[in-house]
Amino acid sequence: MFASTNLIVELGLMILILLGWEFLVAELLGGLVLIVVMAGIVHLTLPEALFDEVRTELNQRDHEHGITEDPTCGMEGRKEHTIVTDGGERLRFCSEGCLESYRQQTVSSGNWRDELRSWGGWYKLGNQYRKEWSMLWTDVVAGFLISGFVIVFVPQWVWNRLFLQGDGLLVTAENAVMGVAIAVISFVGSMGNVPFAVALWGGGVSFAGVIAFVYADLITVPVLNVYRKYYGWSVMLYILGVFFVTMAFTGFLMELLFDAIGIVPNLAGGQTATEQTYFAVDYTFYLNLVAFGVSGFLLYVYWRGLGAPGQYRDPVCGMRADDSGPSARYDGETYYFCSETCKRAFENEPTGFADRGPRVADEGHEHAH
């Protein structure tokens, strides 16, 4: 969980842009330290009997309620997106997009060159892009909205009361602990933590407090409520305790390390969030236009793939196709394709693609529920 939350590209880019390279290094190095520290704490303190009991109860509950995991993304599957495979296995998916991804993965056997030149291959990319943004956009919007209010309306004396000022190990430790505590009671997590961290940094909070706050997005109130719902109060409190100590200690350790090598950033020498100019007609403006164009294209091919006529399935890339597109006959069946590229790939090696019927209804004898 620490690795998948802290060691990701998009979070690193936001930290680099909004906070600076020192915080990026602390995020990446701290992500590894978090894992080591937590592994040590868990090794010494894990209540194995409690966890075994909760795990057994959870598996039994899921079995009784028929809860199954989406094989594409790992989220909880829904009844309305259910198929039955040739082997009689019932699979549930969280959305139509994940169901389409699974269908294409099981049908498609073309190489990357075929997919690059087909609508089906681009549909897979567009679908993955859509899923990534669907998980991120609410965090980003909420983070900027809340941090905007914090920057404008929270007076300086509040930060001075919450976070001790000055130098010394006690000040560093208190700031790290308080940074995690602020994260716990906030409702912002993941990407949204970064703009909130900018508000803390602009308020004079120390390096240890800010980086510990960034680490602590796994124990915000909404996330803790999810732990409580699935695992119960005892496990939730144990997770909270382990994560809290791990994050605060790692933030404390990062400031000591960075101070020893002389790279703790100096807020007084830079600009606060309210002083920076973020909009200008420069190279980033034009790169943003390019990014919007690429995003629009990927969303277009996603909706084209999801809404395409559903009678036929391109056997090369898995894209839905209709009878107005390219087609080929093989072994008494007519196959339809999303592009001439996929048709040529099929004609070059038809035995490698013709193991399923050409119609969508032939896929694993699936049934909607």
Cross-sheet strand order for the largest sheet = 1-2
Shape: globular
The helical percent reads 55-70%
Strand-residue fraction?
5-15%
Characterize the main sheet: 2 strands, antiparallel
Distance between the termini: 33 Å
Number of separate domains? 2
SS-derived structural category: mainly alpha
**Radius of gyration, CA atoms, in whole angstroms:** 26 Å
Question: DSSP helix count?
Answer: 15
- Give me the count of strands: 6
Mean pLDDT metric: 79
| Poorly predicted runs of 5 or more residues | 268-274, 364-369
> What string gives the helices and strands in order?
HHHHEEHHHHHHHHHHEEEEH
What does this structure look like?
By secondary structure, this protein is mainly alpha-helical. The protein folds into two domains: 2-63 and 128-282, no CATH class; 308-369, no CATH class. Helices cover 61% and strands 6% of the residues. It is built from 15 helices and six strands. It has helices at residues 2-6, 9-18, 21-45, 48-64, 96-107, 112-116, 119-153, 156-162, 169-185, 193-202, 207-215, 221-231, 233-261, 283-307, 340-348; strands spanning 78-84, 90-93, 312-313, 320-321, 327-330, 333-336. The chain has a two-stranded antiparallel ribbon. A two-stranded antiparallel ribbon has the order 3-4. Residues 268-274 and 364-369 have low confidence and may be disordered.
